[in-house]
Design a protein that fits this description.
With 77 residues, the chain is mostly helical. It is built from four helices and no strands. The longest helix is centred in the middle third of the chain and has 20 residues. Keywords: Membrane, Transmembrane, Transmembrane helix.
Length: 77
């Protein structure tokens, strides 16, 4: 059986996890939806490069939400 205390988070990671755990998980979903809407609006306005730039934010926000949910349910060291 593997010792779970063998690997521990650093001080910075623990601090970040403590702070991000205070943010509601659905906030990340709404930020991602807002980025999609902003990207679409910019695309319709003819600002292709800016629309692509903002559109690329969607995946990281969703990943932040998943990370946030994991930290809340599983915790850290």
């Amino acid at each position: 059986m593997e010792n779970q205390n063998q690997y521990q988070e650093g001080k910075v990671a623990k601090t970040i996890e403590d702070k991000t755990a205070q943010v509601p998980s659905d906030a990340y979903l709404w930020i991602a939806v807002a980025a999609m809407g902003t990207s679409l609006t910019l695309k319709l306005m003819g600002k292709k490069h800016t629309a692509l730039f903002i559109g690329q934010w969607v995946a990281p926000f969703l990943l932040f939400g998943i990370y946030n949910k994991i930290v809340k349910t599983e915790g850290h060291d």
